[in-house]
Specification:
- The protein has 203 residues and is an alpha/beta fold.
- 50% of the residues lie in helices and 15% in strands.
- The strands form 2 sheets. A 4-stranded parallel β-sheet has the order 1-4-5-6, with helices on one face.
- It is globular, with a radius of gyration of 17 Å.
Length: 203
């Protein structure tokens, strides 16, 4: 509430809050502030159980705090088209969360290497399948947020600036990205410059 009301008063139309996947105090506060939630989920049993736990948290927020939000979608990640486990888990997700499952992001070695190298997917393999699939997720997320020309978009934890750059290029909106990691800030600035949206995006 302390975030949302001042943001609205400043004319900010959309705020993206990116948190770690675990469920804790910070994540719960982010959920309370949000009016739409996109849940990434690795396609394995334990992760899908985690999605169920998040939905229980959201139900509690509705019951206790009259949370007005909704689940925008559930994004299956690390999907392996070869293994039976992946296929069975995806089918289970589709049954338990009918109509909410987005197009899965396939398993690839690049995301794992990114974690080791401390780099983004776009730095490791900008034209690879994983980068293309995650870019599609960014565009889908902005569509779900109903971004329109004239809006002002904020991204808290902007990483390499992918969301704010896409918002500026696709919708022509002004956007502001924040990140506490100096390396991510520099990547964002470089991304803004290479996409020629300096007049629309501030990092």
């Amino acid at each position: 509430k302390r975030l949302v009301e001042p943001a609205a008063a400043l004319g900010i139309d959309a705020v993206v809050i990116d948190t770690s996947p675990s469920v804790g105090e910070l994540q719960e506060q982010a959920l309370r502030a949000a009016d739409g939630v996109l849940i990434p989920c690795a396609v394995d049993y334990l992760a899908t159980d985690g999605v169920y736990n998040i939905t229980l948290t959201l139900k509690r927020l509705v019951d206790e705090f009259k949370w007005p939000g909704r689940i925008l979608g559930i994004l299956p990640t690390f999907y392996d088209t070869v293994t039976r486990e992946s296929k069975a888990t995806l089918q289970d997700l589709q049954k338990r969360f009918t109509g909410l499952i987005l197009e899965p992001v396939n398993r690839a070695t690049v995301p794992r290497e990114c974690a080791v190298e401390g780099k983004t997917i776009y730095e490791m393999e900008a034209s690879g399948r994983a980068a293309r699939q995650y870019q599609a997720v960014v565009e889908k997320m902005l569509d779900m947020a109903e971004i329109k020309p004239g809006d002002l978009v904020y991204d808290l934890g902007c990483g390499d600036g992918r969301i704010v750059v896409t918002a500026a290029k696709k919708y022509g909106v002004k956007a502001v990205g924040y990140d506490i990691n100096p390396e991510r800030v520099q990547e964002s600035l470089a991304n803004v410059k290479s996409n020629k949206v300096e007049h629309l995006v501030t990092i």
